Amino acid sequence: QVQLVESGGGSVQTGGSLRLSCTVSGDTYPSYCVAWFRQAPGKEREGVAIIERNGNTNYADSVKGRFTISQANSKRNIYLQMNALKPWETATYYCTLDHDCYSGSLGLKAEYWRSASWGQGTQVTVSS
Fold first, then answer.
1. pLDDT (0 to 100) of residue 1
2. Number of other residues whose CB lies within 10 A of the CB of residue 118
3. Cys-Cys crosslink for 98: which of 28, 92, 105, 116, Cβ 3.0 to 4.6 Å?
């Protein structure tokens, strides 16, 4: 089975940067979508960024211009570069993988990733 492991989280001050990594191992599809989600205490899990099977990307409006999702040539490592972090972005960040995904706003909703594999998450804390 596929395994996803997130890393790179930590504590930064407002305006700081972090780069999260998602490592994919085990057997999976030859081509797949990967997304980053985050979940703050008491809030729903929300989509942050998606990289599709063809390499196209999609971002939540709140992170456009600040976050960048990318994928290694092997497709086994996916990154989320986060710049100019805000305190309200404190959350556990998860990566998820599925064979296909929806584009646009639907792809940023967790309910459209029902069959996806999820990692355990990495904590990001942004202090003011």
1. 85
2. 15
3. 116
Contacts of 111 (CB under 8 A, 6+ apart): none
Number of helices (H) and strands (E) in the chain: give both, helices first. Answer: 0, 11
E strand residue ranges, the chain: 3-7, 10-13, 18-25, 33-39, 46-51, 57-59, 67-71, 77-82, 91-98, 117-118, 122-127
Q: Is 20 exposed, middle or buried (0-12, 13-18, 19+ CB in 10 A)?
A: buried
pLDDT tens digit string along 54-64? 999 999 999 99
Encode pLDDT of 23-52 as tens digits: 999 988 888 999 999 999 999 999 999 999
Tell me the longest C-alpha to C-alpha distance in the chain: 42
Of residues 102, 60, 64, 95, the one with CA closest to residue 79:
95
